[in-house]
Design goal:
The chain has two domains: 3-211 and 326-410, 3-Layer(aba) Sandwich (Aminopeptidase); 214-323, Alpha-Beta Plaits. Helix content is 31%, strand content 22%. It has helices spanning 3-15, 34-48, 143-161, 189-192, 239-249, 289-309, 327-330, 335-346, 361-367, 391-410, and strands at residues 51-55, 61-65, 76-81, 96-98, 106-109, 114-116, 132-134, 170-175, 196-202, 207-209, 214-223, 265-273, 277-286, 315-323, 352-353, 374-376, 388-390. It is globular. The model has no long low-confidence stretch (mean pLDDT 97). Bound molecules: zinc ion. Zinc ion binds at residues 81, 144-145, 178, 201. Its main location: cytoplasm. Pfam families: M20_dimer (PF07687), Peptidase_M20 (PF01546).
Length: 412
């Protein structure tokens, strides 16, 4: 069997196991079915010859590839998550293989007329002539992040079978529940024992990310007074009008639909209104720590100003930090990004370094003491029926992992 076919088979073996996570569950993993793939991964890691393969009560998997050199080399790690997004079903995934992609529309499902088209998803044209794995149009694919797992396992297997590649100690970590924001929560950084790590959880080939948003959530409550509308003059206070004053006091163009790159925003993602009380739910995002703090301060000031204006405690606000920009933790150890960039260059991959407009498990891990940039896993259009992954990108990711291991050993 060719290495390419092996990687396809391995990937299909993972994505055909349903591991959808569930934000409404309090257990870890959030769904029992995640154990199905977790247990399989443990067996596989043992089978390829990894050491110290463990799985804990929360289904966090760790394994070690010991160093094959005499001198000291820092311990590096590679991390992926095995759950898939609850945004779209991950049950009964039936991967389709498109060989030698011709740059035209791909009919995912003729019956339901579901087409993956470069007219809409122009990234497809990057992969002309390559082998694509797509869905059958009725599920997501799960390349996020089973492509990452496929790549890490394949790279470890390659290093085990190629002693001539010199490397230091390498740790592997697979987590549940990343898609519901809990992948890092119960990750035992001390047990993992790496000096730094990489999540293999980015998208397009070349992506390398070490900056993400600072993030907070805000809940604003406006209080009113309900009175029979027929007798309301001078008595009724309609909280929904108050709430709209708050909404309009924020800069209208600093919202997700008007921003990009390093521009931060306020995002109103929920309103629950009655005359008596209206609740507004926001998320606040900014790469810059000072601007992030200023955004939170602005919301609090608007609440104070409006309470003063209406001469009453009409508004209450509660702001909770969610995660922070990993840049702060990665910049002091910038060589970990440089090594990844150098690895890509040596392999003829153009590094695409850009700020993430979101968070990753790596941002949480970075603040838990494990600096953790994010590297491409190769897939596109995550969390939906148009998800696909070029096999060649997965193969390149395998090479990047091996090259990072090699460069880390050389740099010492
Ligand atoms: Zn992911």
């Amino acid at each position: 069997m060719t290495p390419k076919q092996r990687i396809i088979n391995r990937f299909i073996g993972y994505v055909t196991i349903d591991t959808e996570s569930d934000p409404n569950s309090n257990t870890t993993p959030s769904t029992k079915k995640q154990w199905d793939l977790a247990n399989k991964l443990v067996m596989e890691l043992k089978a390829i010859g990894m050491s110290d393969v463990t799985i804990d009560d929360n289904a966090y998997i760790m394994a070690t590839l010991p160093s094959n050199v005499d001198h000291h080399v820092p311990t590096i790690g590679f991390i992926s998550h095995f759950d898939t997004s609850p945004d779209f079903t991950g049950a009964n995934v039936k991967p389709q293989i498109v060989e030698d992609y011709d740059g035209k529309d791909i009919v995912l499902n003729a019956e339901e007329n579901i087409v993956l088209s470069p007219d809409y998803f122009e990234d497809l044209l990057l992969y002309k002539g390559q082998t694509l794995i797509t869905t059958d149009g009725t599920t997501l694919l799960g390349a996020d992040d089973k492509a990452g797992i496929t790549e890490i396992v394949t790279a470890m297997e390659y290093l085990i079978n190629h002693h001539e590649i010199k490397h230091g100690p390498i740790k592997v970590g697979f987590t549940p529940d990343e898609e519901i924001g809990r992948g890092a929560h119960k990750f035992d950084v001390e047990k993992f024992g790496a000096d730094w790590a990489y999540t293999m959880d980015g998208s397009q080939i070349g992506e390398l990310e070490y900056e993400n948003f600072n993030a907070a959530g805000a809940v604003i409550k406006a209080k009113g007074k309900i009175v029979h509308p027929g007798y309301a003059k001078g008595k009724m206070v309609n909280s929904m009008y108050y709430a709209s004053e708050f909404i309009n006091a924020l800069p209208r163009l600093e919202t997700p639909e008007h921003t990009e790159g390093y521009e931060g925003f306020f995002h109103l993602h929920g309103i629950n209104g009655k005359v008596e009380e209206t609740t507004l739910k926001y998320i606040i995002r900014d790469h810059d720590k000072d601007k992030f703090e200023a955004r939170k301060a602005l919301m609090e000031k608007i609440v104070l100003d409006l309470n003063t204006k209406f001469e009453a405690e009409v508004f209450e606000i509660e702001i909770k930090d969610q995660y922070f920009n990993m840049k702060e933790k990665v910049e002091p150890v910038m060589h970990i990004v440089d090594i990844a960039e150098e690895a890509m260059k040596q392999l003829g991959i153009t590094p695409l370094i850009k700020p993430i407009r979101g968070g990753t498990d790596g941002s949480q891990l970075s603040y838990m003491g494990l600096p953790c940039p994010n590297i491409f896993a190769g897939g596109h259009n995550f969390h939906g029926r148009y998800e696909y992954v070029p096999v060649e990108s997965m193969q390149k990711a395998v090479e990047v992992i091996c090259k990072i291991a090699e460069l880390t050993a050389q740099n010492q």
